[in-house]
Amino acid sequence: MTTHLKGQKMFLAGQWVNSERVIEVRDPQDNSIIGTVPAATAEDMLECIEQAKQGAKIAAAMPVHQRMKVIYAAADYIEQNSEKYARTIASESSKTIRESRKEVGRAIQTLRISAEEARRIHGETIPFDQSPGSENRVGYFYRFPIGIIGAITPFNDPLNLVAHKIGPAIASGNAIIVKPATVTPLSALLLAEAFAEAGLPSKVLSVITGHGREIGDALVTHPAVRMITFTGGLEAGEEIMRKAGLKKIGMELGSNSPVIVLPDADLDDAVDSSVSGAFWAAGQNCLGVQRIYIQQSVFHLFMEKFIEQAAGYLVGDKQSELTDMGPLITEKEAVRVENLVNEAIEKGASLLTGGERTGAFYAPTVLTDVPEDCTLATEEIFGPVVLLYSVTDLDEAIELSNGVEYGLQAGIFTKDIDQAHKAIAKMDVGGIMINDSSDYRIDAMPFGGVKQSGLGREGIKFSIQEMTEPKVVCFKLSGQ
């Protein structure tokens, strides 16, 4: 079953709008056209920002109970139409139908957490009399919305990562403009549909489809847009930083996540978790397992088990309930991954399984003996490729794990609490999962990395902190 949404309109300040030019949305599985969306212009984006100025005032004036009601209603709408949402994700993205259903469930949870966090945007009293001469002053601070938020979202989680921008923005009383990935805009538009059905006031939310080179600069550089929240690649993130000017920036820029396996680990659990973490969504996952450091005494046993599972993955039709992994987002991306693997093999890496491409499909691939000067060893692969390394001890594993310019999340498998705490203290990452792969995440936790993996933190409560500012109120009292 394939979902077709021909002639989908974009959501400009609460209105469904067409455009003379369109973008074809294709299923990466067979490159068939599953729909079209408007190709917005820079003028469309500027009009959207003008509307959002009013939307920011409307959003800020919404009482908390109204924000909560709207967000809950949007979550309910998605839940009532969950299969439609899942089929859309599975049609336009790389995810299988089983993976897509899980993403829909997470998006519903993301919105419901956002509604709950709306009631917890707290301030504090301030003891002004701590300063001599201020004995007659009392006050507090509270948090207020920053105004207009510009969100640029990726293709790999086309519903939930958009929900992670929209949910906290509305919960905190902001207007938001979303520019979804050009290749996966339909899921974001369905999320806008949910908020429209939920009764969100006009002008608070826009989802504008188009090419980044045409509408991105207008969004990023406009002084009325007070924050840019971006999930994507490092190069694009650096370009946004150069252009954005004086405004808040939140960025999640990916990683090449490490996992460490020590001899006392439950190897079956470590293999199961790491295989899933490596090949979920065809490896197009910022948390995806890319490098696994296994202590020598269990290296060969782990490798055998890992290869057996990876080689047994069923790759094929995304809409089939039996499929484990679908294609990459485009054939161009599959060719890129193929070239990176071939480069590593030419430089001496050993191919243990996989390494085969058919169109946009690339088989789950496992390499070992990968030289340090290979791109695969230091950069984000963003494909179904994992590297296995034998190490002498935890210290070597930590040193190698930290020896790259990324630091989003890591995993370690061990029953030794002392070894676990050593890794916690010494690994340069934003999150470390004990007896889980780097791929584990819940939507309520602070999420983000260090070094080139990004700036700031997502996770609803933490996004709301980024999307609000504290305002101090001080009363000077007389007659006391």
UniProtKB/TrEMBL annotation:
Q: Which CDD domains match?
A: ALDH_y4uC (cd07149)
* Top-rank taxon: Bacteria
Name all Aldehyde dehydrogenase domain ranges.
16-473
Q: Which GO terms describe its molecular function?
A: lactaldehyde dehydrogenase (NAD+) activity
Which Enzyme Commission numbers does its entry carry?
1.2.1.97
Q: Which Pfam family is an annotated match for this chain, by its short name?
A: Aldedh
Q: Name the InterPro entries on file.
A: Ald_DH/histidinol_DH, Ald_DH_C, Ald_DH_N, Aldehyde_DH_dom, ALDH-related_metabolic_enz
Q: Which reaction does it catalyse?
A: (2S)-3-sulfolactaldehyde + NAD(+) + H2O = (2S)-3-sulfolactate + NADH + 2 H(+)
The keyword Calcium is annotated on this UniProt entry: no
Q: Please provide the record's keywords in A-Z order.
A: Oxidoreductase
| Cleavable signal peptide | none
Q: What does this gene product do?
A: Part of the sulfo-TAL (or sulfo-SFT) pathway, a D-sulfoquinovose degradation pathway that produces sulfolactate (SL). Catalyzes the oxidation of 3-sulfolactaldehyde (SLA) to sulfolactate (SL).
Q: Which family does it belong to?
A: Belongs to the aldehyde dehydrogenase family.
Identification of the protein by name = 3-sulfolactaldehyde dehydrogenase
